[in-house]
Amino acid sequence: MQALYTCSHCDSQYAKWQGQCDECQKWGTIQESGQEAGQKPAELKSVSKPSSSSRISVGMNEFENVLGGGLVRGSIVLLAGDPGIGKSTLVLQIVHGFQSKTNQPLAGNSKQVLYICGEESAEQIGLRMDRLKVSGDNIRFAGVVDIKSIINTIQKHKPDLVIIDSIQTIADSSIASEPGSITQIRATTAQLMQIAKSTNIPIIIIGHVTKEGSVAGPQVLAHMVDVVLYLEGDKLHQYRLLRSTKNRFGPTNQVGVFSMQDSGLIEVKNPSQLFLEGGGAQNSGSVVSVIMEGLRPFLIEIQALTNKTSYGYPKRATSGFDLSRLELLIAVLQRRGGLKLDNQDVFLNIVGGLRVKDPALDLAACLSIASSLSNQAMPKKSVVIGELGLAGEIRPVSHVDLRISESSRLGFTELKNIKNIEQALKVLNIGK
Ligand code: TYD
Ligand code: MG
């Protein structure tokens, strides 16, 4: 028997004691947590793996692609995201797709769904269902928030799918701690995990992302569940990205694209068209580039506006782009490209409300600034891809073939033979 050490903050486990937790970086939180029971290990070939038959279709391709197939029986999926981003909407649509897939009967023919709604009243959910045209047949709503009665209900009714909306509202009354606290979340999720595994029922847990960007306490949930999905987007814009950051049954970093409409979330099969709203790059200051989200290339448009500074320091502002990266690119444009920007305000915007971190956008950002400054438009149907080094050199980017084939699919061509920022500026007949 071997001692086991657990971090009291994030639940990571270690074979030896250490001062700092590798996962959550907290100091002094690792304590001995009892003995690991000596168990006879099972042979690998006798351990069952999820086969395609143990996956249940939910009738939504974008969602299933992110999962790497349908929902795995007995698995726990965490659906995380900002409040109001559309998690409850997505889940109801999944329930609908799950029930209309009659080709895989589980218990009898009609699939029962248990929807635990601690967040909203059944009336509120009813209104949303009307809007989404989801029928309430075979969905049982329970407004209970006590984990013991949730477990009892699952055992009694044996539903085919359980939805917990949201984990922050569920509590174990035997624990003296507020619902939503780390202790409660850990305790209730552990019990859900157990019931999912013992009954083979899949459970989808909704979790709100807190201001600090973590799902209900630092990584607590992510460690425990099988799959972690994030629903992201900008509430003022239509698009939503569904991203997998953990998946015990499939690849991670898969991305699904949806558009939020009056009738709910619509799958977007051709994301480039969504982000290239006006067909892309007609005016000066506007450049088309290709970003990667997971393994999916999207064409996007980047816009810059330069304007003479009227007093004081020149202003730099961005939307959807890292401000310090912009400042660095401006320095490269000045020193290596010979552009005069020290008396110019520079504003940079990613069209469509997308937030982009892909360094392959560097060159496009630089050219959009140069294009605005010189008041010259880029060549028609051109796409610009490239990371920029401090010496003004263009660096290779990841998945360049995927990016180029997506561009040509939409009739765009990459600017060729550009090795550095000086050559890039020649496209606009400016620079040194
Ligand atoms: P919701 O799913 O309630 O968000 P969450 O569960 O993540 O908190 O959806 C929030 C927003 O989505 C709400 O402001 C209204 C909007 N919405 C639509 O635009 N269309 C729809 O069909 C629905 C149901 C909601
Ligand atoms: Mg909700």
Note the topology.
Elements: E1 2-7, E2 13-14, E3 30-36, E4 55-56, H1 61-67, E5 71-72, E6 76-81, H2 87-100, E7 113-117, H3 122-132, E8 139-142, H4 147-157, E9 161-165, H5 182-199, E10 203-208, H6 220-224, E11 227-233, E12 239-247, E13 255-261, E14 264-267, H7 271-275, E15 286-293, E16 296-308, E17 316-319, H8 323-335, E18 344-350, H9 362-374, E19 382-383, E20 387-388, E21 394-395, H10 400-409, E22 413-414, H11 421-426
Parallel strand pairs: 6-10, 6-11, 7-8, 7-9, 9-10, 17-18, 19-22
Antiparallel strand pairs: 1-2, 1-3, 4-5, 11-12, 12-13, 13-14, 15-16, 16-18, 20-21
Helix pairs in contact: 4-5, 8-9
Bound molecules: thymidine-5'-diphosphate and magnesium ion.
Magnesium ion binds at residues 87-88, 119, 165.
Please bin the fraction of helical residues: 25-40%
Q: Radius of gyration in whole Å, from Cα? A: 26 Å
CATH fold naming of the largest domain: Rossmann fold
Q: Architecture of the largest domain, CATH level 2?
A: 3-Layer(aba) Sandwich
The helix tally amounts to 11
Shape: elongated
Low-confidence stretches: none
Task: Summarize model confidence as the mean pLDDT.
Answer: 87
Q: In total, how many beta strands?
A: 22
Task: Find the structural class using helix and strand composition.
Answer: alpha/beta
The CATH superfamily of the largest domain bears the name: P-loop containing nucleotide triphosphate hydrolases
Distance between the termini: 71 Å
